[in-house]
Structure prediction request, 201 residues.
Amino acid sequence: MSRYPFLIQRLIEAFSRFPGVGPKTAERFVFYLLKQSKQELDNLSSIIKNLKTEIKFCPNCFNFSLNNFCSICADPKRDRTTICVVAEAQDLEALERVNTYYGVYHLLGGTLNALEGITPKKLRIKELVERIEKTSPSIQEIILALNPDLEGETTVLYLTKLLKPFKIKITRLARGLPTGSDLEYADEITLSNALEGRREV
Ligand SMILES: [Zn+2]
Prediction:
C-alpha cells in the first residue's frame, strides 16, 4: 500500500495508464512535476486543459489541426494528386521527417483489428472513399503506408480491394521495413527507401 498522499497516488495512477509508462516511471514523472515552479505547472495544465477544445481534425485528411484545414492541406505547394494513407498522426510525422514526400495524406485513425473490434466502420475508410469520389479524376496515386504487421497487411488488402474500381494507381511501401515494426520508429533512411521503392498492388 502506497504511503504517498492521495493526490500523488492519483497522479501516479493516471500516468501509469499512459502507453509504455509503468508505475515506477509514473512515480518519477510526479516527483519531477513536484519540483517544478507553480508557473510551469500552470502552463502545463492549461495546455492539457485546452488540448481537446483547441485541437481539431482537418476535415480533409483528419490530421490534427488548430484551424479548419491542417498545415499540409492548407499548403498550396503540396501535390494533391497523391494521397498517402496512414494509420495515425505519428506515421504522418515519421514520413514528413523523411522530407521527400510532397503529396497529401489521409489518416485512417488506426488499422483493422478483428480481435479489438476495429472494423472498417470504425476507421475513416468511408471518408477516404468519399474524398476519392469527389476528386478522383485528379488523383494519380494512392500510397498505402501502413505498418508491416498483421493489422497493417489486413488493412492494405481491404483497401486495395475496395479502391480497385476507381482505377487509380495504388501502391504500398517497399519491403525493407522490419516485419511487425512501427512506421513511426523506422529510421529515416529505411523509411525513405520504403517510400522510394513503393510498388503497385
Ligand atoms: Zn489535412
About this structure: Helices lie at 6-16, 23-35, 38-54, 89-98, 125-135, 150-163, 188-196. The pocket of zinc ion is lined by residues 58, 60-61, 63, 69-70, 72-73 (CB under 6 Å). The chain has a mean pLDDT of 92. Residues 6-54 form a domain with the Helicase, Ruva Protein; domain 3 fold (CATH 1.10.8.420).
